[in-house]
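Sample log: Cu-Zn family superoxide dismutase.
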Amino acid sequence: MRTPVRAPVLFAASALAASGAALVPLATPALARPRPHAIVVRGPDAVHDQAFRNAKTRVAVVRDRHRTWVSLRVWGMPREAAGRTFGAHVHVNRCGPKPGDAGPHYHNPDAPPGTPMPEMEVWLDVTVRPDGRGHSRASVPWRVAEKAAGSLVVHAKPTDPKTGDAGARLICTTVPF
């Protein structure tokens, strides 16, 4: 619990200030580490298969200088989805009324030629439980560039590890990467 630790520090700082002593920050800008910022959105913003019209999503993204974490939660998936795995990927554009509006999968622009697909894209295949819910996370050892990606799409099939294909686009959530 932090309160007992902070109370003496605040008391000491108050005593020093009252005595006229100058207060120096505990961390200088050179030593301070910026905290990664979380992006959290709810969706979907587009439904491309009406069987998934009641589905809901929550996408969370955290980036630091060298890594990106993406989390996907789905609920309200149709009964027929229970037990199935759906591909989910980061795409380059925002969602739109047509499935293709989200554009292609986002690729790490710094990946050397010949990099295997799973290492240059963000994949979050999600398996739906009997209650219509599912959760998936992905972490990549590179940063999705700011404003270079725009959505997360849930596809009809599991992701093919060789091609990255996952079938038709079912729902799309716009994410302001």
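Observation: The radius of gyration is 22 Å.
Observation: The beta strands are 37-43, 46-47, 56-63, 68-75, 85-86, 88-91, 126-127, 134-140, 151-155, 169-174.
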